[in-house]
Amino acid sequence: NMYAPIWDNGENGTPVNDTNYYALYLYKTIQMYGDNVDIWEITNEPDLTGSPASYQGPEIDDSWWNRDPTPCELAIKAPIQYYIRMLRISYEVIKSEQPDDFIALGGVGFPSFVDGLLRNTDNPDHGLPTNEFPLKGGAYFDVLSFHTYPHIDGSTREWSNSANGFVYFRHSDRTVDQGYLKSFRAHKKVLEDHGYNGNLFPKKHFIVTETNIPSKQFGEYIGSKEAQRNYTMKVLLKSMQVGIEQVHFFTIAEEGEYFTLEFSHMGLYKKLGANIQSPTQLTEQGIAFKTTTLLTKGYVFDPEETAALELPPDVDGLALKNQEGKHLYALWAKTYKDRNESASANYTIPVVDENNVMEIYDWDYSITHQKESVPGQKLSLTETPRFFKPIGQAKLAFEIRPKIYPNPAHIDFQMDYTLFDDADVEADLYDLLGQHVLNVLPKTHQLPGNYSTTITTEFFPAGTYILKIKARQQTIIQKMMVQHY
Predict the structure, then answer these.
(1) In the beta sheet, which residues pair with residue 436?
(2) Where are the beta strands (DSSP E) in 74-164?
(3) Chain segment 303-334, per-residue pLDDT in tens
(4) Residue burial 120-157, b: 16+ Cβ < 10 Å; e: rest
(5) pLDDT at 399
(6) What is the model's pLDDT at position 309?
(7) Domains, the chain, ranges and CATH?
(8) E strands, 34-148, in order
C-alpha cells in the first residue's frame, strides 16, 4: 500500500497515514531505534539479479542503460519505480523525525540500476514526472552505498584472442583498482552525469557495506590469507584517498575451515563459539583491519603531500595528515603476478630529510605492538602496506641493520651488529602475540664497535618470533623462525 498518501492530518495519533503501511512501519521504527541510527540503508541489494542486461554497456540496446529492469529480473520482484517510492517515503518520514540523518541506497551493485533511479520518478506510470510525482529518484537519498566482490565481478581476468581464453590477474592490487575502485568510479560517474557534482545538485556521500575476497582458493577465484589481508588494508587506505566514508567487510566471522563456499572464508574473526562467553580470535584480515584503523585514526588524506611523494610505477600509497599537521605515510610495492602476492621495491621518500628517523609499523602491529625505527629516506617496501611516521632527527647508533643468522635456526641464532656511536643497547624476544619470551641482551652501555651475541632457542616451541633491538631512539625489528627437525 505504498502509493497511499504518506501523510494525513494526524489521525490515529501518528503524523503519517496509517494506511500507508510502510510509512507507519518507518515511523514506529524511528520511535524505537532512531536515537541509535544515523544512516538508514533502504532494502538490501535492490538490484540483485541474474540478468546480463544489468552489466552490459550502453551500446547494448537491451541493457538497463536503455530500459528499466523488469520486475522479474529483480530479486525484489517489483518495478524500479516502486523502489523509488520506497526511497521517497523513507526520505520524507525519516527526515521529518530526524532531519540530520542520512538515507542510503541499499548496497547496489550495478551503475545501470542507479542510472535508472536517476532518470525515473516514483510514478508507477513509467516513472514520468507529474505534479504528484515531481522529482526523480536522486532527490530521495543522500548516500550511495554499494557492494563489490572483486573475485566474482570479472575484474581479475581478461579475454585473450591469442590465448583463446581468459588471462588472469588474481592479486590484491588488481582487485582493488579494477574491482573495488572501478565500481566506485563507475557509480560516481553516473551521479555526475545526472548533475550530482556539487554544482547543479549536491554531491552524494559514498559508503561500502559489503566487500571482501576469500582467504582460501576456490576454482578460478583469487583466494589466500595474504591476498585477503592485503586487499583489506589497501581498500581502507584507497577509500580514504577517494572519499569513501565507510567500509564494512563481509563478514564478522568465518564459518569454518571445511566449508566449501568462498563466502564462508571471509571474516574479521575465526569461527565464533556457540555462546557469548566463547573466546574470540582475529583472522589475519581482522588483525590487518585493526592495525590500519588504529594507525590512521585522526588522519585524513593529504593530496598535496601524496603528489609530492612522486611514487614510481611499482609503488603505491598515500600521505595522511592529522590536525597537528603531522604526516603518516602508507606505502607498498605493487603486486603484479597472477595468484602471487610477492612484491618488493626500494623507495627513496623525497619529503623526509635524510637525517630523519622513521617509525615503521607493519600489518600486525595491533597485536605485536612492535614498531621499528630506521634512519634516512631509503625505505624497503613489500606487497603489504607499511606505515611510516617521521619522528624527527636523531644521532643514530645503528647505520647498518643487525644481522641475524641462520634464519630459520634449529638451536642457536647469531646476532651481529655494529654501533656507530656509543649507546645503551638492549634486545628482547617476543612471540607473535606480543608476549615477552626472553631478555636477549640486558640494557648495557656499549662503545662504538662490532658486537656478536648468541641467542639459544633450543627449548623454544617451533614458530616465528620477533626480536626487538633498541639503541637510543632507534628500534630495529627482526623476525626469527625456530624450526625443530
Answers:
(1) 430
(2) 102-105, 143-148, 157-160
(3) 999 999 999 999 999 999 999 999 999 999 99
(4) bbbbeeebeeeeebeebbbebbbbbbbbbbbbbbebbb
(5) 66
(6) 96
(7) 21-296 (3.20.20), 299-391 (2.60.40), 400-482 (2.60.40.2550)
(8) 39-42, 102-105, 143-148
For residue 412, the tally of other CB atoms under 10 A from its CB is: 11
Query: What do you get for the CA distance between the two ends of the chain, in Å?
Result: 72
Going by C-alpha positions, the residue among 27, 42, 41, 32 that lies closest to residue 97 is: 27
In DSSP terms, which residues pair with 168 in a beta bridge?
Answer: 157
Residue with cell string 589497501: 234
Interstrand relation of 102-105 and 372-375 (parallel, antiparallel or unpaired): unpaired
Could you give the C-alpha distances from 224 to 143, 169, 280, in angstroms and in order?
A: 32, 14, 21
- Does 245 score more than 70 pLDDT? yes
CB-based contacts of 338, cutoff 8 Å, min separation 6: 168, 169, 170, 171
**Do residues 371 and 360 make contact, with C-beta atoms less than 8 angstroms apart?**
yes
Cell of 26: 518507518
DSSP 8-class letter at 340: B
Strand partners, 74: 49
Q: Give the gyration radius of the chain's Cα atoms.
A: 27
Pick from 46, 152, 38: which is nearest to 101 by CA? 38
Find cell 635524510 and name the residue: 354
Q: What is the percent of the chain with per-residue pLDDT over 70, rounded to a whole number?
A: 99
pLDDT at residue 29 greater than cutoff 80: yes
Q: What is the pLDDT of residues 248-289, one digit of tens each?
A: 999 999 998 889 899 999 999 999 987 777 889 999 999 999
Give the pLDDT band (50/70/90) at residue 66.
Answer: very high
Contact between 20 and 4 (Cβ < 8 Å): yes
478: confidence class by pLDDT, cuts 50, 70, 90:
confident
DSSP string, 343-394: -EEEEE-TTS-TTEEEEEE-TTHHHH---EEEESSEEEEESS-EEEEEEEE-
> What is the spatial distance between Cα 151 and Cα 294, in angstroms, rounded to a whole number?
27
Query: Which residue type occupies 406?
Result: P
